[in-house]
Amino acid sequence: MLGIARRKVGLGVFSATILEQALQRALTAGSVLPKKYSTTAKEQMTVREALNTALDEEMSADPKVFLMGEEVGEYQGAYKISKGLLEKYGPDRVLDTPITEAGFAGIGVGAAYYGLRPVVEFMTFNFSMQAIDHLINSAAKSNYMSAGQISVPIVFRGPNGAAAGVGAQHSQCFAAWYAHVPGLKVLTPYSAEDARGLLKAAIRDPDPVVFLENELLYGESFPVSAEVFDSSFCLPIGKAKIEREGKHVTITAYSKMVGYALQAAEILSKEGISAEVINLRSIRPLDRDAINASVRKTNRLVTVEEGFPQHGVGAEICMSVIEESFEYLDAPVERIAGADVPMPYAANLERMAVPQVDDIVRAAKRACYRSVPMAAAA
Amino acid sequence: MAAWFTRSSGLARCLFRRTTKMASPAIFGCGLGPLSSDPAMAAPVNGASSAGGCLRSVRHLGSAKSGERVSQVDDRCGDQVLDFPGGKVMFVPEMKFLPASPSERINCYRVLDYNGQTISGSSFPEVGKEVAVKIYSDMITLQVMDTIFYEAQRQGRISFYLTSNGEEAINVASAAALTMDDIVFPQYREPGVLLWRGFTLQEFANQCFGNKLDYGKGRQMPIHYGSNRLNYYTVSSPIATQIPHAVGAAYSLKMDGKKACTITYFGDGGTSEGDFHAALNFAAVLEVPVIFFCRNNGWAISTPTTEQFRSDGAVVRGQAYGIDSIRIDGNDALAVYSAVHAAREMAIQECKPIFIEALTYRAGHHSTSDDSTKYRSTDEIEHWRTARDPVSRFRKWVERNGWWSDAAEEEHRGNTRKELLQAIQVAERAEKPPLSELFTDVYDQVPSNLYEQEKLLRETIKKHPAEYPSDVPV
């Protein structure tokens, strides 16, 4: 598997020292992995740990899986997602790349054409714009254009959407962009369980997958059941999860907005509105069955997303409900999205450009006729 | 004081030594040696070398006539060495910019002259009768194929075609130097490679007509051939995207430890794309067995190379990224064969990329959508089509060896033409791909929404049979 493995580690003096230090640390620490959880009762897991262990286990199980991206090796990952992997698997399977998204996305696709299973990391999906031709024209369409002769089992992953105070070119949500294209699968994990299960599913999937994480969720800790720790744990692609059951209004959300929606549901429950929160998990394919079943139960819908409103995920969900469950709607669909402006930097402006819990609560109330609808407002 | 004097005299000695030994323009920081006469030497450009950091040498493969030795900087210049990330460099007090265009262009390797005679002193591997005849006859087949398909497009029987006129030697001779294990990532002007590997005229015709026998299931424009079996990746329209793909696949070969390489073809225009630069840089850093083959045919649709780049062609770009590079006469079948043969050996044995720039001329139009007489003179086109034709040049060499004749020529051209016309008729009459092929292969498994759409479509067809075209199978 390692083949002719010769690769100069960095140039000159500096990199050698870093590697030496890293090796020293590894040897003295005794273990090169983040702490392994005992099967009995460790209950919490951060999203970062979830992603790291998922990558580790998949790389261990299949020698064709390899990781490639800027800072994924020596630096342990720009957000430390790939911590310990370089030491464990070596520079053949954890590649630090030159700064060229177009380059390493193209090279990843080429490796996938031949039969490897690359996991390509973008430091943020905003930078994937420099490589989007390879994601769309080389990855998404190849299986179809070649009539099944070329399959592309590649995963593109990285943080997506707004972080905190990083401005317009580091804050856009690309879920709608990639979900637009047939041939791609687009996943948006929220919790640690989502992150682990969906990343494993993405790596094992024969189609190209765009895996949209969220920087602010990396450090968040979630309770997980025992089965999540198992190395064969996997979540199905294309199935949403009902995070909270309810009767009066359906709230769909993905990624960080799921947390906001759950907070909103808690506030709403105190006012007598029982909200059902759906964690979409998968934007393409969209779990239209789950969404429609929920709307047929509650008769009201609020879609929540961080991205820009026009041509967004909420627009697609709304259309799906109109096509399949129109007669079940008791109120117009409410769409909550980011402000239609490039993300401003100043903290106060940024707060207003991204949906907040209050926005979701107000939208749910509007849908339940507890307040005046938007159109009638003065 | 004494120390200062010693140091500066040492520097003076260094400068004197360098300026007298060098014939080429002085390069800031290090001595750049002229071309070595030893064609077997191929050291990569290396900023951090072993000899006290003072030596930086560049050698090219090729039949350069220069016999001058590479200049060496004395160890006594150790005082004038700077140690930065990237390795040691000599410093010089005089400020000199590297010239944008060197006084001499990089030389071009060739084996046969215009009369098809081997040039004395040329080095090339032996090419036996069987291989030579197959190369030549495949070049003719390619010519015939191009003529007839082009005509078919003009007659409205296919929608589009792209010829390889003038690049037959590049197509076939390069393929002949490879094995079936080597993976090909083409641009679109390399059907000759597929032809060499065994793609039949019928298979070419099926793709152009987009019928149900097309391996592409009728999903692509004509000339977008692809064959898993022959290790030829499906042609993709965007320019230069195949170059990083080739590097990625070469990386896979390296990880598998396979004794094979990848080869990727692109034109002079393709070297302007970002993908080209990213791929070359990556290949050098990752050290993978890939051959970059640039078909510098002078034109990118209507853009001549003078408007494409200002560097000395593409070969210096390979060198700039730290890749062993060579410039060859692309209309000389033996030179192409020889260079690709050597490149493959080096790529596989030493697990590194090689860059080949083949100078040639696009004797035909860019495609059937182009009329090149609008931007270049018909005299120029005629000249390259006749006096500089690679096919007739190689023919002279093959005939001189007694392996070909006029009779063989007539017979082969006639047979190929007949076979091709027959193949076109068959392809034209064959059924188009069925409706089910509209929905497959988007993903590995047909997703539920497409399954529903197909069902809906079939129901609609059943309800309104008169509206549905009769020549499209369901």
UniProtKB/TrEMBL annotation, chain A:
<dbReference type="Pfam" id="PF02779">
    <property type="entry name" value="Transket_pyr"/>
</dbReference>
<feature type="domain" description="Transketolase-like pyrimidine-binding">
    <location>
        <begin position="45"/>
        <end position="220"/>
    </location>
</feature>
<dbReference type="GO" id="GO:0006086">
    <property type="term" value="P:pyruvate decarboxylation to acetyl-CoA"/>
</dbReference>
<dbReference type="GO" id="GO:0046872">
    <property type="term" value="F:metal ion binding"/>
</dbReference>
<dbReference type="InterPro" id="IPR029061">
    <property type="entry name" value="THDP-binding"/>
</dbReference>
<dbReference type="Pfam" id="PF02780">
    <property type="entry name" value="Transketolase_C"/>
</dbReference>
<keyword id="KW-0786">Thiamine pyrophosphate</keyword>
<dbReference type="InterPro" id="IPR027110">
    <property type="entry name" value="PDHB_mito-type"/>
</dbReference>
<keyword id="KW-0630">Potassium</keyword>
<comment type="function">
    <text>The pyruvate dehydrogenase complex catalyzes the overall conversion of pyruvate to acetyl-CoA and CO2.</text>
</comment>
<comment type="subunit">
    <text>Tetramer of 2 alpha and 2 beta subunits.</text>
</comment>
<dbReference type="InterPro" id="IPR009014">
    <property type="entry name" value="Transketo_C/PFOR_II"/>
</dbReference>
<keyword id="KW-0670">Pyruvate</keyword>
<dbReference type="InterPro" id="IPR033248">
    <property type="entry name" value="Transketolase_C"/>
</dbReference>
<comment type="function">
    <text>The pyruvate dehydrogenase complex catalyzes the overall conversion of pyruvate to acetyl-CoA and CO(2). It contains multiple copies of three enzymatic components: pyruvate dehydrogenase (E1), dihydrolipoamide acetyltransferase (E2) and lipoamide dehydrogenase (E3).</text>
</comment>
<keyword id="KW-0479">Metal-binding</keyword>
<keyword id="KW-0496">Mitochondrion</keyword>
<protein>
    <recommendedName>
        <fullName>Pyruvate dehydrogenase E1 component subunit beta</fullName>
        <ecNumber>1.2.4.1</ecNumber>
    </recommendedName>
</protein>
<keyword id="KW-0560">Oxidoreductase</keyword>
<dbReference type="GO" id="GO:0004739">
    <property type="term" value="F:pyruvate dehydrogenase (acetyl-transferring) activity"/>
</dbReference>
<dbReference type="GO" id="GO:0005759">
    <property type="term" value="C:mitochondrial matrix"/>
</dbReference>
<keyword id="KW-0809">Transit peptide</keyword>
Automatic annotation (TrEMBL), chain B:
<protein>
    <recommendedName>
        <fullName>3-methyl-2-oxobutanoate dehydrogenase (2-methylpropanoyl-transferring)</fullName>
        <ecNumber>1.2.4.4</ecNumber>
    </recommendedName>
</protein>
<dbReference type="Pfam" id="PF00676">
    <property type="entry name" value="E1_dh"/>
</dbReference>
<keyword id="KW-0809">Transit peptide</keyword>
<feature type="domain" description="Dehydrogenase E1 component">
    <location>
        <begin position="139"/>
        <end position="434"/>
    </location>
</feature>
<keyword id="KW-0560">Oxidoreductase</keyword>
<keyword id="KW-0630">Potassium</keyword>
<dbReference type="GO" id="GO:0009083">
    <property type="term" value="P:branched-chain amino acid catabolic process"/>
</dbReference>
<keyword id="KW-0496">Mitochondrion</keyword>
<dbReference type="InterPro" id="IPR001017">
    <property type="entry name" value="DH_E1"/>
</dbReference>
<comment type="similarity">
    <text>Belongs to the BCKDHA family.</text>
</comment>
<keyword id="KW-0479">Metal-binding</keyword>
<dbReference type="GO" id="GO:0003863">
    <property type="term" value="F:branched-chain 2-oxo acid dehydrogenase activity"/>
</dbReference>
<dbReference type="InterPro" id="IPR029061">
    <property type="entry name" value="THDP-binding"/>
</dbReference>
<dbReference type="GO" id="GO:0005759">
    <property type="term" value="C:mitochondrial matrix"/>
</dbReference>
<dbReference type="GO" id="GO:0046872">
    <property type="term" value="F:metal ion binding"/>
</dbReference>
<comment type="subunit">
    <text>Heterotetramer of alpha and beta chains.</text>
</comment>
<dbReference type="InterPro" id="IPR050771">
    <property type="entry name" value="Alpha-ketoacid_DH_E1_comp"/>
</dbReference>
